[in-house]
Amino acid sequence: MKRLPLVAAGLAAALSVALSGSAATTVLGSGRPAPTAQLLALSHTEAAAASERAFAQDLVAALAAEHSGNLVVSPASIFDALSLLAPGARGQTSAQLTRALHAAGSSRQLIADLVGLEQHLGTADGTVAMASAAWLQQSYQIVSGYRQLLTDAGAAPQALDFISDPDGARQTINQWVLGHTGNRIDNLFAPGTISDTTRLVLANAVALTAQWVTPFPQRDTQDAPFTTPAGPRSVPTMNLVTSMEYVQTADAQAVRLPYATGGLDALVVLSADTAADPLTLLGRLPGITSQLSSHAVQLAMPRFAAETSTDLRSSLGALGLADLFRFPDLSGIAGAPGDLRVAWAVHKAWMSVDEAGTKASAATGISVETGAALIRQPIRMTVDRPFLFVVEDTATGVPLFVARITEPHPEGS
């Protein structure tokens, strides 16, 4: 009998919620196969799923470089929030978003895919709920076609007064997020992230509650060693002996844990390299899972809860989207190229796994502000040789201090 070890030393497992079966035959959370025609009607095609998988791999790699320790993220939520923004991009900005999202079609198709996924999640039995929303500065005029696309996506813009009451608007948005994440994701937009220059905010929220087909017996949970980066420690560890899909390759051990609602399962993946970041296995999941087969397995796995809050600007910049936050062309939303820019892109995610199943919530927010037209492509000045430094009185031009710097040394050196 093949086994996963009872002692979960070096586990660092990558637990991911995944589609069970191919996108062409299974509707997420439906509990039964769905004909291809039905899936096509929902617009969430295999091409769209491939785009989301490729985006997820790129995004997680970028986030892993920024975050040590536990990391929880919903690539689907971030993908969908960017999909709401994409139809408003033009020129090079549109091309950058298309590349980053691995988009298989037009920005209109991205919206159709988003609608398809959210509709199809909404027909499930409460296992997963996903929603999108948009808020617009009252009386601010945006391109009618973009407004219609947001409406088609179920995110018809709601009017808020960012100019007169930015913090009140922020609280309204945060309350929507809280209500659409099972009261788990609070304060997505921190104080100061919404200002009187904000003109548009886009958000996506997702919440999951799923029970295992075969729960872990509570009586079998006991403390067991777990090797953390800081060394071994004792953690509450669940134990289950049952028939499940399992594989051991040269790279990893993996097991599939199905949820009681069909179409969803969890993959627990344990790297063969005890020093490796388990997230590096994400790109190899298709090859690993294609080899899964039914075995009697004795699985020992820690129960856990983890959450991550992240400013996405750096990670999205690593995906080729840095211009979104500097000098984008969002004239498909309003104004001329450079009149609008993305001020913030934020994400929060939470997950809890125990003997009964999995609960998880996530939200993504994107705020778009005006004023970028004053900040065109900068002239670069690099101070890399001897220079003059003057402190002067602004009104009179009187120099209070003058310095010539030929060898810079920081204070205390």
Automatic annotation (TrEMBL):
InterPro entries: Serpin_CS, Serpin_dom, Serpin_fam, Serpin_sf, Serpin_sf_1, Serpin_sf_2
Gene Ontology CC terms, in alphabetical order: extracellular space
CDD domains: serpin_thermopin-like (cd19590)
Endpoints of the signal sequence: 1-23
Annotated SUPFAM superfamilies: Serpins (SSF56574)
SMART domains named among the record's database cross-references: SERPIN
GO molecular function: serine-type endopeptidase inhibitor activity
Annotated ranges, domain Serpin: 57-408
Keywords: Signal
Similarity field: Belongs to the serpin family.
Protein's name according to its UniProt entry: Serpin family protein
